[in-house]
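CO-FOLDING WORKSHEET

Operator: S.A.
Ligand of interest: guanosine-5'-triphosphate
Run index: 357
Mode: holo prediction, single chain
Checklist:
[x] sequence pasted
[x] SMILES validated
[ ] output reviewed
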Amino acid sequence: MTRDYSDFFPPQAATIRPPSPIKQYGWEPFFAQQISVDDLSATPPARVVEVHRNGLHIIGDEVEITIPPLPDATVGDWVLYDQSRPNACRVLTRKSVVKRRAAGTGRKIQLIAANIDTAFIVTSCNQDFNVARLERYVALAFEAEITPVIVLTKSDLSPMAEPYITQAAEVSSWVPVVAMDARGEEPLAKLAPWCGRGQTVAFIGSSGVGKSTLTNALSGTDSVDTQTIRDDDAKGRHTTTRRQLHRVPSGCLVLDTPGMRELQLTDAASGIEDVFADLVALSSECRFGDCQHDTEPGCAVRAAIEAGAIDASRLARWRKLKAEDAFNSASLAERKSKDKALGKMIRAVQKSSKKRD
Ligand SMILES: Nc1nc2c(ncn2[C@@H]2O[C@H](COP(=O)(O)OP(=O)(O)OP(=O)(O)O)[C@@H](O)[C@H]2O)c(=O)[nH]1
Ligand SMILES: [Zn+2]
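OUTPUT RECEIVED:
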């Protein structure tokens, strides 16, 4: 009898080879279940890792190529690469998508990025810290179906980071808060839970809060600023054209697109409801279904404020965010309409946003 000793030997090289490119780029069952085995061999999946003016750079298993732009694809999308008709590649259903409305006529929806798993909402422990802004970004992430994480940088500069952490934690009980000095080793360890292999992350926040510093910390380099590709645009100004996913040593993919940094609140009604879920729940107990929580009798929201259970400023911020969203989401025609209520609300929002940033 021959005995099988194979269990005593180390695994064969073949079984420990690195994951396939698509796994490294975040391929997972959510996408796999959208395609048949036939699709898989005829039109292999590939991820859009970079968008530039004349095409989309895609990477898959044994595929790395630039294809013509597809009207409904953006950075982060998975496409089924059709070699014979590259300009007709199918875009797979997304796990998440960030969009915005273009300025100007038509206010068409523009896709910013797809299939982001985690949005790191970055602010610093100093005068940049602003609860209303955090709520706005968290609402955007919820709306886009992205996991938000609040990152407080410059904890080394503030003798008292604790009050900032407490306030950030009050934004939503669903959103973790991590504080750090973005310049050292801390980011790698503290962001690790969201930065595993194939995870796609993005940094959102105002200028100067440390987004590039954090990106460099994950990359283990200080190359982000210097690597930015800049093109002269028609007006002779320098604008960055880079919209790309880059892989970092931990195996996660960091999205770097200027559009992510300048997000407006648009079409985010349900994201706002999620951030203010406590107020939404209370509203359902108001006597009137359309209660404005103003002077109406039987208002559960005002009762909670009077009882000290919620802060009046939180109600004010909820209203402002809803108004801002309604304004930004309105079509041009709606904006021009003579609807007095909308006009009044728009003026109020414009006035308050001038004060804000
Ligand atoms: N002391 C300290 N400085 C930091 C920290 N994070 C960032 N900085 C510094 O703050 C400055 C701005 O950081 P950036 O990473 O360029 O900020 P950014 O968010 O990428 O800014 P934009 O590119 O303008 O959007 C740099 O000089 C950083 O070194 C931190 O945690 N502690
Ligand atoms: Zn009410």
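REVIEW:
The two ends are 81 Å apart (CA to CA).
The longest helix spans residues 312-329.
[x] output reviewed
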